[in-house]
Amino acid sequence: MEWIKKIGGFIASILTFVQGHFKATLLVLFLLWLLIPSGEEAIASHNLQKITLTGPILEAAPILEQLDEAAENPDVKGVLFCIDSPGGAVAPSVEIAYAIKRIRESKPVVVYAGGIMASGGYYAGIWGNEIIANPGSMIGSIGVIIEGADISGLMDKVGVKTQVVHAGSYKQVGTFDRAWKPHEKAELDKVITGTYDMFVRDVARARRLDPHQSGDYADAHIFTAEQARKVGLVDKLGVEFDAKKRLAELAKVSDPVWNKEDPMEKFFKQFAVEGAAMAYTWFPAITLK
Predict the structure, then answer these.
(1) What domains can you pick out in the chain, each with its CATH number?
(2) Whole-model pTM?
(3) What residues contact residue 76 under an 8 Å CB cut-off, 6+ apart?
(4) Among 14, 137, 224, 286, which residue's CB has the most CB atoms within a 10 Å radius?
(5) Which residues are catalytically annotated?
(6) pLDDT of 144-165, one tens digit each?
(7) How many CB atoms lie within 10 A of CB 127?
(8) Among residues 79, 96, 83, which one has the least CA distance to residue 55?
């Protein structure tokens, strides 16, 4: 039993050190992350690259960085863009969509819908050469929304009043301390309608659909994968294995070698995704969701 006590004492000493030197522990982990070779360096150069978009879309930079890397790497012959996203902010969704459009000019891009590919998540992938959807995925929700709470009743109960000085009739559009006035709603409706028209126009162009028949595939309809295939939002049904196989065919790669994500980068990325999801629930805006 003595050896068990020794092991227990050793573990306890480690935990005590971490608790007492938390900042130092974080610094050591950060230095290890910098010094340990990344997975990209540890494996042979890949010829096909998988890029994953997961969760709410709040910014485009992390995905754009990966897309640019794939576009500029002559060894990469094709890109598999995996999406599991309910949508998010308008501008980042558009940025990602147009980055894929640029890539497909030089190498094929297969988009794979692994769970939810809806609203901004769908917008992001419209320019892929082909869209393959998991049979259990949900597709569509091509629409735009803005939400805001009216907490005036709560403010009255707690005895809080706001004081505002503003110039411009529309400066308080979206305020939360009272109901929106008709001209404010009209202003928001103008923005929403313009954004929706852009969304439908881009989907129609990318998927070669009739914009005059957008009521069939847009209008915020939500589809199963099979229903989405019938209205033209996806090309075929399959799992990720099928999407990888199809990309290899389009890229004319007989011996596919896929990129591998560095474990440390994956760890930090997961933190970022969870943090973005929390922020998304607290800061509403004009979104594609």
Answers:
(1) 38-288 (3.90.226.10)
(2) 0.77
(3) 46, 47, 48, 49, 70, 107
(4) 137
(5) 119, 171
(6) 999 889 898 998 899 998 888 9
(7) 23
(8) 83
